[in-house]
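#dry-run=false #mode=assembly
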Amino acid sequence: MTKRRPNYLAGVGVTLWLFVVALPLYVMLGAGVQSRADYGASGPLGFPDHFTLSNYVDSFSNGFGRYFVNTLIVTASVVAIVVLLVPPLAFAIVRNRGRSTSGVFRLFLLGLAIPAQAVIVPMFYVISEAGLYDNLIGVILPTAAFCMPVCVLILTGTMRDITDDLFEAMAIDGADARRVFFKLVVPLSKSGLSTVVVFAALQAWNGFLFPLVLTQSEETKVITLGLYNFQTQYGVDIPGLLAAVVLSTVPVLLVYLFARRALVQGLMGVGGK
Amino acid sequence: MASPSKDGRPGIGWALPAVVFFALFAVVPLVLVAVLSFTTWSGLGSPEFAGFDNWVTLFHDPVMIKSLWLSVLLTALGVVVQTPLSILLGVWAAGPQRNRAVLSAVFFVPLLLSATAVSVLWRALLEPNFGIPSQATWLFGDGNLLGDRTGAIAVLVLVSTWQFTPLHALIYQGAARAIPAVLYQAAEIDGAGRVRQFFHITLPQLRNAIITSVILMVVGGLTTFDTVLILTQGGPGTDTTITAYYMYQKAFKGFEFGAGAAIALLLVVVATAVSLVVVRVSGYDKMAGTKEGM
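#status=ok
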């Protein structure tokens, strides 16, 4: 590239946007470590003078520990279901010669267009009939199903990139489908798989609608629901609320710090392709 | 039938578990939503067949009609506000500036929060007595932004912009990186300035990215729910009762599950139709490449 003069206009615009993004985050972090009295006195933009972790301690005594455990259970189960079901499916879509697999692929593409809101009423009916209302399993199953279309899209994309020569070489060695899957497809789909894991985990961790409608008791509450309840009960305890918001995001932030690439691709989901 | 796996190709059986699971929890409910929309069901006992009752009631329900308009309005505002912002941010992030990586990392944070967390955060920020508006009464009047119609709608658009602009900026960043540098070099030689390059090269090359991003915004906008539930509860009055939220109210607060199912079905139809229209109008389905003349 030729040397260019700096783009001052872009610099100003970006700085403005930085302000818009960072201000709420600053208030969130600052308010969470102040007592309510201090926050009331210094206002949202004031700098926290007396640092305290009492809001975080209170969150845990308000049941956040349990919400964390429940959310972890949901997240791990959703990831497990997706990882068990989607890779074999993607393998079949990419490598099966029959005509039915393209129909299967189209079914999942159609699934991309189904919003969770559209099925929440019948889901409530089905889950109630199955006796899974107010049970974490009742949240896990639909959450996993609704992650699948994007995961199928990501994984078929990855598997299509595996060259034919490699498959042919394995076929000449007389490898059966199972061997091809475990020795060739899985090792070469690692990047796609990690994207899928992150995407499914995020969906499950941040999921709100299914838990809201399909659970009710304290024992089955997940984090997002805990936040929502906290908001309706203690709406004026802003430092407490914001500490809870920070807590609910800590695991995701950690993943962001240590596995940024996978996380960004996971968030992109459909948009990435 | 699929051939036996002598050639290392998987049989259709490999797809079955996933297909059955997905059908049970996504396809069957979609069929059921259509069935339920012709029934009356209070959540207890069994649904009773009711013919077109729900539909007739809905189309005579002023709140329902208003909710559709509100959904369209909020979605359109979202597209109009977010698209220019995210194109500019994305194109900027694809460029060679210093500090880009650090800034991009910060810009990305809102996307990590759940919609629930974002709504709770903004509600706290906008709290009339202790929030940001209370610090700038010259700008916000009494500071109760969520208390009037314009304020509430503006807040909803602002919050979704704050959260989702990074996602769309990412889409544009990826697309902008894929634009061949040779186009810009040719423009430099022709003496086209930065602004002209943006309008004559960058924007046309981003066409497919724009379509993808707009479709995502439309579907996302029409199904906005968490933010409305937490920030406005559809209020003041029914001024932010958008269709998705009205569905939830009808079904899970009013125990009219049949009516809720009808609204849900309507939502699917509208969302799909709008996506199809966007695809049609743009000629995206003809897969017109952006590589013409290369």
